[in-house]
Write a structure and sequence with these properties.
With about 525 residues, the protein is of the alpha+beta class. It is built from 17 helices and 20 strands. The protein has a seven-stranded antiparallel β-sheet with strand order 6-3-2-10-9-1-20, covered by helices on one side. A six-stranded antiparallel β-sheet has the order 7-8-13-14-18-19. Strand 16, helix 17 and strand 17 form a beta-alpha-beta unit. The relative contact order is 0.18.
């Protein structure tokens, strides 16, 4: 089974599974297709993170996070969020997929060639694909930023007119870049002919990135973070991602018997929101690149600490907020195969449409993840040469008996741990099926793209009695549309190892689809 926010991309992965490919190979093919069909959220010029599990239960985290340029002069006071100066970190997505491909080949019996996994994406780029509702939405949403996103609107609109949903789009320039990577290997993006062209294009645009920065970019395969929850174990990405935050939230919730609370009740929402506030306080204080800063992950995920955090929650009174908001847009891909291998993946260009810079004639949109750095000299996430920025992405898995039971992940920046708390409690504590858990009303604490207030946003299909009770506890509320695309686009696959059955779904707020084979 494979799930992603775009049906065409999901089918690319499903085709790999039908041909006998591994879950990791299917995830690679799906991601590559999304790099073509979902340019507003992900691409070759972005980052990617994966959690992989083989049939024996061995779990690995693959981290493809681009590091800051060597030359960071001029960023002492301010880091732009759009434009060439925001393109200040290298892109780890291609290296991450290559690293995953090697793991599949060497440890999972994968036999698909690198070229064959990128070939469907190349076909979409050359032959065309139907423009999605999501792409059209985010073009329209950013119309008032046309000056800052001039490259985007020049590349994705004809004659300055927004495209229609379903309209055919071809991207031959991107297809040629993909063909170079497929033919000459992933390192061509970093050290080959394509890398040379990218370095020239980035420099011409005004980015600080140079050829030496691309050449220094390598994905990492490392041990994931683990946390016991109920009768299983949650695994997620290590720092500098906020995987730690998701696990902290769930570890705090593990101190409460959620089955005594009604799903979707004011108590359920209040408890999740208060756990999120506590975890975000720690995230903002400690989280950074562990190559540069000591991140006390072991202490922050220890049972004693999480129990003490849980004891701070007052079920009748909301903790004061606001706190720092982190942006970001992303795609989630989940895949599992008949042999028991699994992949949980997130890919991103940070903000929707990233930096807004199309690099030369490569067809590649560069991300702006470097805008996540701080300029505060006392903050652990302060910008430094060669440093990886704090990352909102945190795909994960829930293991039972040391085997993958749930694959999960979501788009949504600050909303990622929040959405995952709602999704995981519904799947694990309330035994909901993926489609129902994903469709249920959600919340978002803090700013959004359309609302700069730091209050609690609730979708309008949350029952009025729940809304009233949350207000009485001191939550500052505003309402959003039901099934709002601003609430994230998670996906999930539940694997029943005893029967071999799988149930998957992607968020109805997206264009996504889960496909079983």
């Amino acid at each position: 089974m494979v799930t992603s926010p775009n049906a065409v991309a999901s089918e690319c992965g499903a085709s790999v599974l039908r041909a006998g490919g591994t879950a990791v190979e299917a995830a690679i093919a799906t991601c590559a297709a999304l790099y073509v069909t979902y340019p507003h959220f992900c691409g070759l010029g972005g980052d990617a993170l994966l959690v992989l599990a083989d049939k024996s239960g061995k779990v690995q985290a693959v981290s493809g996070i681009g590091q800051a340029a060597q030359n960071i002069a001029g960023y002492e006071q301010h880091i732009p969020v759009r434009g060439p100066r925001s393109a200040l970190t290298s892109a780890g997505a291609v290296s991450a997929l290559e690293c995953a491909w090697h793991i599949s080949r060497d440890q999972m019996g994968g036999k698909s060639s690198w070229y064959s996994l990128l070939e469907p994406a190349m076909a979409l780029a050359f032959e065309g694909y139907a423009i999605s509702k999501s792409e059209r939405f985010w073009l329209q949403f950013r119309q008032n930023e046309r000056d800052a996103l001039a490259d985007v609107f020049n590349s994705f609109c004809q004659n300055d007119v927004l495209p229609k949903v379903g309209e055919l789009r071809r991207r031959p320039d991107l297809g040629l870049s993909m063909k170079a990577i497929a033919t000459r290997g992933a390192r061509d993006f970093y050290e080959g002919e394509l890398a040379s062209d990218l370095a020239k294009g980035l420099r011409a645009a005004g980015s600080p990135l140079r050829a030496v920065d691309l050449a220094a970019t390598h994905a990492r395969a490392e041990a994931p973070l683990r946390l016991p929850y109920r009768d299983g174990v949650l695994v997620s990405q290590p720092p500098p991602t906020q995987g730690m935050s998701t696990l902290q939230i769930m570890g705090i919730l593990d101190n409460f018997d959620l089955q005594k609370l009604t799903q979707g009740s004011a108590d359920h929402y209040h408890l999740m929101i208060e756990a999120i506030k506590l975890a975000f306080d720690d995230r903002n204080q400690y989280l950074s690149d562990p190559d540069f800063v000591d991140v006390p992950t072991q202490r922050l995920l220890s049972p004693g600490y999480l129990s003490a955090q849980a004891a701070q929650i007052n079920m009748q009174q909301a903790k004061a907020w606001p706190n720092v908001y982190q942006h970001g847009d992303t795609v989630y891909v989940g895949a599992c195969d008949a042999a028991g291998n699994a992949a949980s993946v997130l890919a991103t260009v940070y903000f929707d449409w990233g930096s807004g810079v199309m690099v030369g004639d490569s067809g590649i949109l560069w991300h702006n993840r470097g805008a996540a750095f701080s300029t505060d000299k006392h903050h652990p996430n302060i910008l430094a040469s060669g440093k990886r920025p704090f990352h909102t992405l945190n795909p994960g898995m829930y293991l039972k008996n040391n085997k993958p039971h749930i694959l999960f992940g979501t788009q949504g920046a600050d909303g990622q741990p929040q959405t995952l708390a709602a999704l995981l409690t519904r799947l694990i504590d309330y035994d909901m099926d993926p489609a129902s858990a994903l469709a249920a009303p959600r919340f978002l604490l803090g700013k959004t793209f359309s609302d700069s207030s730091d209050n609690l946003k609730l979708e309008s299909d949350v029952p009025i009695g729940v809304v009233r009770s949350l207000k009485e506890r001191g939550h500052q509320l505003s309402m959003t549309d039901a099934q709002s695309p601003l609430m994230g686009h998670p996906g999930a696959i539940v694997i029943h190892t005893d029967s071999g059955s799988m149930i998957g779904a992607h968020d109805p707020r997206s264009d996504g689809l889960a496909i079983g084979v």
